[in-house]
Predict the structure.
Amino acid sequence: MKLTKRLAVIASYIPDGSTVADIGTDHAYLPAYLVLEGIAPKAIATDIHNAPFQSALKTVEAHCLLNKISVRLGNGLDVLRPGEADVIVVAGMGGRNMEEVFEKAPEVLRQTNRLVLQPMTAVDMVRQWLWNHNWQIVDEDLLREDDKFYQVLVAEPGEDLHKGDPEFGVNLIKKGHPLMGELLQKREAQYGQVLNEIRRQAKTEIKEKEQQVEAKLMTIKRVKQQWLNAQKSIK
Ligand SMILES: C[S@@+](CC[C@H](N)C(=O)[O-])C[C@H]1O[C@@H](n2cnc3c(N)ncnc32)[C@H](O)[C@@H]1O
């Protein structure tokens, strides 16, 4: 089974021998791949909607994996018992939705060794949520598909002593990740546009917003320099 680049990157952060729960699985391609490749001895594939749940069942049946992958219909972690999964993957969902899923299931999270997350939006909120709930981000990855950047966060229980900016984290910068320069450039241009728009309106009540965006642009400059230094030391 061949995965898309995004799912293949996510799969690479699943330790061998883990029981994996893929929340919001849709077609269940990720759990099917992990079991077929012998990375996960068993898996749980869940989705909140019936159509993706049926697709997941179809994939699992087509690969004769019904004895190894449990396909479940339900909201977030409601359909998991504490301790059932070593690793929980939540990919392709918005950051706020992820937070809601986590907030409802502290018992399940307490017995999970690793989270592999790929938020479609609000990655800063997801990092902040992890930090506030005693998860450390131990690794991160970045990929681009169809001109869109995707960040992958790998978190394990424990206090994060190296946080960095919630939008960018520290791992991609420390690694001198080859795509990080492009991501920073894109964000710098986007925040620059926002700042121009705020200044054009020149309303006093949006002074605070202007200061926030200026601070963000300063952060991007600083992070860019750290990333360049890391790149130089790798070469
Ligand atoms: C864009 S798809 C992503 C599928 C797959 N995880 C991936 O990354 O390719 C998002 C899936 O999450 C499901 N979903 C959204 N909210 C959910 C929730 N609270 N609990 C379980 N599944 C959810 C949707 O039904 C949909 O099938």
The pocket of S-adenosylmethionine is lined by residues 7, 23-26, 46-49, 52, 75-76, 91-93, 97, 101 (CB under 6 Å). The chain has two domains: 5-162, 180-234. The chain has a mean pLDDT of 95. The chain is about 45% helix and 20% strand.
